[in-house]
Design a protein that fits this description.
single chain, mainly alpha
C-alpha cells in the first residue's frame, strides 16, 4: 500500500514544478470515433414519366420565381406612382392656394389704387366725359375678292406627292 500512495513525481520538485508536470502529463481519454458523413446519392430519373415530372417541377419553379419578381415590381411601381401622384397633387394644391392669394392681393391693390385716385389730395386729374378719347372707325375698306377653288382643267402629269 505504501507504493500506491507514492507520487510518480520526484520529491525534490517544488509545488510550482509539480503543477507544471501535472499540466504536461498526457491524458488518456478515449478519442471519439469519427462518424462517416452520410452521402446523398442523386438518382437520375429512369422512366420517362419521372423525367417529365422533374422537368415540369423545374419549369414551374422558374415560372413561380418570375411571377414573384413581376408581382414585386408591379407592386413597387404602383406604390411609386401613388407617391408621385400624391406629391404632384400636393404641389398643385399649394400652387392653387398661391394663385388665390395673388388674385386677392391684386384685387386689393386695384381697390387701393382706385381709392387713392378718387381722393382729393392726389395730383391725379379726375375723369370727365369731355376728356375721354374716342377713336373713330376708319373708312370702310373694299372687300377682298373671295377666291373660289375651281378644279384644274387637266390633271397634273407628275405624281402629286413630289
Amino acid at each position: 500500500m505504501a507504493s500506491a500512495l507514492r507520487s510518480p513525481l520526484p520529491s525534490s520538485l517544488s509545488d510550482r514544478d509539480m503543477s507544471r508536470a501535472a499540466l504536461n502529463q498526457p491524458r488518456s481519454r478515449p478519442q471519439p470515433q469519427e462518424q462517416p458523413t452520410p452521402v446523398t446519392v442523386i438518382v437520375q430519373p429512369q422512366r420517362k414519366a419521372e423525367r417529365v415530372l422533374s422537368t415540369v417541377k423545374h419549369v414551374s419553379s422558374v415560372a413561380c420565381s418570375v411571377l414573384l419578381v413581376a408581382a414585386g415590381l408591379a407592386y413597387g411601381d404602383q406604390v411609386y406612382v401613388n407617391v408621385q401622384t400624391e406629391n404632384a397633387r400636393n404641389r398643385l394644391t399649394a400652387l392653387q392656394d398661391d394663385e388665390r392669394q395673388l388674385n386677392v392681393s391684386i384685387e386689393a391693390l386695384k381697390y387701393q389704387a382706385a381709392q387713392l385716385g378718387e381722393s382729393p389730395n392726389t395730383d391725379l386729374i379726375p375723369q370727365t366725359p369731355d376728356r375721354f378719347i374716342f377713336v373713330e372707325p376708319s373708312l370702310s375698306r373694299p372687300e377682298r375678292p373671295v377666291n373660289t377653288l375651281t378644279p384644274a382643267a387637266t390633271p397634273p402629269q407628275f405624281p402629286v406627292g413630289y
